[in-house]
Design brief:
With about 290 residues, the protein is mainly α. It has helices at about 20-35, 40-55, 60-85, 90-95, 120-140, 140-145, 150-155, 160-190, 200-210, 210-235, 250-270, 285-290, and strands spanning about 100, 105, 110, 115. The chain contains twelve helices and four strands; from the N terminus they run ααααββββαααααααα. The radius of gyration is 24 Å and the shape is flat.
């Protein structure tokens, strides 16, 4: 049986909006965020999404694991890549000359010289703010949106029925996989399997994880085939289908979509017509290095 994220009604301000309006607003804000490299504009979007997070009434206990994963991914991987290589950024980051720290290492006969410059430091900061804004913008949706509305929401946004139902299943896949993994882990522990005592090299540890990985993978494949067969038996997508839940736009939903469109158009105008929002480093930071 498929399960969902830990959704529960909170009667929050965000939940009063039509889920389609929330998705449209989120995508419009996303397209606005990716237009900027300037950390001053990105801080505005971060404040906007944190305000939305506050209005959802989510608690730290509910989202602690997600926050931990996001922070490790963003700060640990993206910031290190931005600091030491500057890849994925504008040309000013790669051609920076204001060096803060530089060292040369020799690994297997190759010379590696990681360098941290002022430009890369500010680029890393802007990337952290940008990715955190995008992450918070979307990870609150599974916790605050009724899982029964996934399919009808995407269908109401104009997507085909197959795509809408695929998105419904996709949102349920991760928590279902986590549930199956925990069940398999408890079953193997009951049989004497000690997952806490995995030793040896990386390949030895992977081999010893087979009693967990193989059953979970096989169960996911079998469950997918069962769902496919059940849909085929019911002649899914052969003709127009009806949905149990019906969504209706209200005035506040149009206002939310309009706010998202206004933010997107303003961002587009700022970057295209006024040429503002490109990569920025304060003069005092450059002067500090000399």
């Amino acid at each position: 049986m498929l399960v969902t994220w830990k959704y529960r009604p909170r009667n929050s301000f965000v939940e009063k909006f039509d889920p389609r309006a929330r998705w449209f607003f989120s995508f419009l804000v996303l397209f606005s965020i990716i237009q900027f490299w300037d950390i001053r504009f990105l801080v505005f979007f971060f404040a906007l999404v944190m305000l939305q997070y506050k209005l959802t009434r989510l608690t730290w206990a509910e989202t602690r694991r997600v926050w931990t994963f996001v922070l490790i991914l963003v700060v640990g991987i993206i910031s290190l890549n931005a600091l030491f290589t500057g890849r994925g950024g504008p040309g000013e980051v790669l051609q920076s000359n204001h060096i803060l720290w530089r060292v040369e290492w020799r690994v297997f006969g190759l010379s590696i010289h990681p360098t941290i410059t002022v430009e890369r430091l500010w680029f890393a900061g802007s990337q952290i703010v940008r990715m955190l804004s995008i992450s918070v913008l979307f990870f609150i949706i599974p916790y605050t949106m009724d899982p029964r509305l996934y399919g009808v929401t995407f269908h109401g946004m104009g997507f085909p029925e197959k795509f809408a139902f695929s998105m419904d299943l996709a949102f349920r896949f991760v928590p279902t996989l986590a549930r199956d993994f925990n069940t398999t882990l408890d079953a193997q522990r009951a049989r004497g399997y000690e997952v806490e005592k995995l030793d040896g090299g990386i390949f030895a540890q992977i081999r010893k994880m087979a009693p967990l990985i193989v059953p979970v993978t096989m169960n996911a494949i079998i469950s997918g085939e069962d769902i496919t067969n059940a849909m085929d038996l019911r002649c899914f997508a052969i003709r127009e289908r009806t949905w149990v839940h019906k969504l209706t736009y209200r005035q506040r939903d149009y206002l939310l979509i309009g706010l998202g469109a206004l933010i997107f158009l303003a961002s587009l105008g700022i970057t295209v017509f006024f040429h503002v929002g490109t990569f920025w480093v304060p003069d005092w930071a450059l002067a500090w290095v000399g």
